[in-house]
Write a structure and sequence with these properties.
It contains 15 helices and no strands. The chain has a domain of 82 residues: Serine Threonine Protein Phosphatase 5, Tetratricopeptide repeat. 80% of the residues lie in helices and 0% in strands. The chain is mainly α. The model has no long low-confidence stretch (mean pLDDT 96). The protein is elongated, with a radius of gyration of 25 Å. This is Tetratricopeptide repeat-containing protein. InterPro entries: TPR-like_helical_dom_sf.
């Protein structure tokens, strides 16, 4: 990275009035956590491009990283005022609004970010669902996963989050349907989805249902090829399932 900074510095000596060079060097300095140098570069860029949206955007990045949240909000909003199609400011403003417990505002900025950056990361759908629940909007919370599956496909991590959502809103039948589709999609991991089911039943204090799911998980684990079972991490999984079966059996027996 230092070499790239040196190259840009050489270009600046040859073209000292080109603002993009200062912006490029500022970005590299930010990546290198040299925020003072980055800030100086942004001041130089501002001389030649005072209306550039990139300048408040990068100042907002520095402020956000340094936990100067009021300044980060001001700079990111200014960046949007100068260029409404920027995605990153919405992402930061959504996080800032969430910290202020303004969930409606956080949702609005997150949805705009997702629209402007269609290649955004998968976890944003789960975050949208969580924000919707915080905002007492269970319909949007459910739609977030449906939108994710529509746009990204039935990705296991997304389906796993969806199943957790259904259990959290007391719709276990829908959660089980999602887990069944996961087991069909990835049969080699069927034991894992049964473990997840057992954990979610346990979180809902449904001990009998949890025990049954753990027993099914153990059966599925025991059907795995011997060489797979013998791997250290797989042995740990098998031992943990057995432990849960034993503990839940004791708890249920004592409660009778």
């Amino acid at each position: 990275m230092h070499e790239r900074i040196d190259v840009i510095s050489q270009q600046i000596t040859q073209n000292p009035e080109m603002p993009q060079l200062y912006l490029d060097r500022a970005e590299l300095n930010i990546q290198h956590e040299n925020y003072l140098a980055a800030s100086l570069d942004l001041k130089l860029a501002e001389r030649f491009a005072p209306d550039s949206a990139a300048i408040p955007l990068l100042r907002g990045e520095i402020s956000f990283t340094c936990q100067q949240l009021a300044a980060a909000e001001k700079f990111m909003q200014l960046a949007l005022d100068r260029c409404a199609t920027l995605a990153r400011p919405h992402q930061v403003l959504s996080q800032l609004a969430e910290q202020d417990h303004d969930y409606a505002k956080a949702i609005d900025h997150l949805q705009k970010y997702m629209q402007l950056a269609p290649q955004h990361a998968l976890p944003n759908y789960t975050r949208l669902s969580q924000l919707a629940l915080q905002n007492n909007d269970p319909q949007l919370a459910e739609q977030a996963f449906q939108l994710g599956i529509k746009n990204k496909g039935p990705v296991p991590s997304l389906l796993e989050a969806q199943s957790r959502f259904y259990f959290s809103v007391q719709q276990p039948e829908n959660g089980l349907a999602v887990l069944d589709s996961l087991a069909k999609q990835t049969p080699a991991l069927a034991y894992r989805w049964k473990i997840l089911e057992a954990e979610m039943w346990l979180e809902n204090k449904q001990l009998a249902a949890s025990l049954q799911a753990y027993q099914q998980a153990l059966t599925l684990w025991q059907k795995l090829p011997a060489n797979q079972q013998q791997r250290p991490h797989m042995q740990s999984i098998g031992q943990e399932i057995e432990r849960q079966v034993q503990e839940l059996s004791i708890q249920l027996e004592e409660s009778r």
